[in-house]
């Protein structure tokens, strides 16, 4: 709901009279396809829905810019069209179909095959999983640009020749963690991470981090997890017992989870006096972008107004590994929020009445970038007088190519 507008934006810009495709008499069409017949939507599917609520507007934003008179496609007489739940046979259109998967791999695989039968030109996605879908895209000889999935296997172009991504792979996060530990010559750590069905991505990232640490000679002495999101101050702190089980044997802790879960670990260690002599330290891994608008939130619990004084003292013994904030990102999030409320998504912002916007996840930017990368590849291919149905030609425009992301 919070990123879908990005594809509408990208398509509208690409299809504008002076846009990337519009200026050439072509258009790019989007089709939003819904799946039904599931008896229940799981917790994980609910989490997937919230992601859509917070990033979908990014695709509308990208489309509108690309199709504008001075846009990538609009300036060339071409356009990118966003069509909801319908396909059209215009021989000059390139069709995108937005298909729901609810974050479930089986449904995602089925949708990948279904979309192939509808003669799509490219896949933007899928969301949570992409390994099997990427292999299918290669077999179908269709471009697949992932804006969300971090499966590291897809980086092997021998098996995934038509796959590209705008979101950094999890191996990049893992290498950053290893670099911090090696810089301080910390060779033995305890590793804590969130292991919950509704946040399955953390399990994948945890496996990657452990593998990379071991490959560079860092010993992971303890591996422990908690099985549900923890909000500090509202439930029993799961880290108290984890620390009691490990502190006598290790001094450096690595935690992978939400920022408010890091807070629980830091407060527990501070209250146990482990930071008093500077003998313990924590490296926190957060996959969410740093919130430069509200840095104090990292020192307070959920729904609290003031920083926790215990946390303020504890965070002197903490280093965070997380994506940095981009300049101008606030303007982008405002636009994505706007497009999320527009057709075809029509995702209402429940915070609008109090003058607030939904928090837009970084994946909205990756989705926005994916649409632009595909549009740019189309233009480059057409200008070289090559067929836009030539997947090899399209993919050559992706690999070893530098681009300016909306994130900077």
Can you describe what's shown?
The chain is of the alpha/beta class and 408 residues long. It folds into three domains: 1-38, no CATH class; 51-168 and 364-398, Rossmann fold (3-Layer(aba) Sandwich), CATH 3.40.50; 171-321, Rossmann fold. 37% of the residues lie in helices and 14% in strands. The strands form three sheets. A five-stranded parallel sheet has the order 8-7-9-10-11, sandwiched between helices. Strands 2-1-3 form a three-stranded parallel sheet. Strands 4-5-6 form a three-stranded parallel sheet. Helix 5 (131-140) links the parallel strand 4 and strand 5. Helix 1 crosses helix 11 (329-340) and helix 1 packs parallel to helix 12. The protein is globular and about 70 Å long. This is Receptor-type guanylate cyclase Gyc76C-like. Pfam families: ANF_receptor (PF01094). One of its GO terms (molecular function) is signaling receptor activity. It comes from Diaphorina citri (Asian citrus psyllid).
List the helices and strands and how they pair.
Layout: H1 5-15, E1 27-33, H2 43-55, H3 58-67, E2 79-84, E3 93-99, H4 105-116, E4 122-124, H5 131-140, E5 143-146, E6 163-165, H6 170-183, E7 188-194, H7 200-215, E8 219-226, H8 239-246, E9 252-256, H9 259-271, E10 281-285, H10 309-314, E11 318-321, H11 329-340, H12 363-383, H13 391-396
Parallel strand pairs: 1-2, 1-3, 4-5, 5-6, 7-8, 7-9, 9-10, 10-11
Question: Helical content, roughly?
Answer: 25-40%
Q: For the terminal residues, how far apart are their CA atoms? A: 23 Å
The backbone outline, from C-alpha atoms, is globular
**Rg over CA atoms:** 22 Å
CATH architecture of the largest domain: 3-Layer(aba) Sandwich
Question: Unreliable runs, pLDDT <50, ≥5 residues?
Answer: 33-50, 83-95
Helix run count: 13
The domain count comes to 3
Number of strands: 11
Q: Give the spatial strand order of the biggest sheet.
A: 8-7-9-10-11
CATH class of the largest domain: Alpha Beta
Could you name the CATH homologous superfamily of the largest domain? Answer: Response regulator
Task: Sketch the topology as an H/E string, one letter per element.
Answer: HEHHEEHEHEEHEHEHEHEHEHHH
How large a portion of the residues is in β-strands, by DSSP E? 5-15%
Structural class: alpha/beta
Organism: Diaphorina citri (Asian citrus psyllid)
GO molecular function, one term: peptide hormone binding
Protein name: Receptor-type guanylate cyclase Gyc76C-like
Main location: membrane
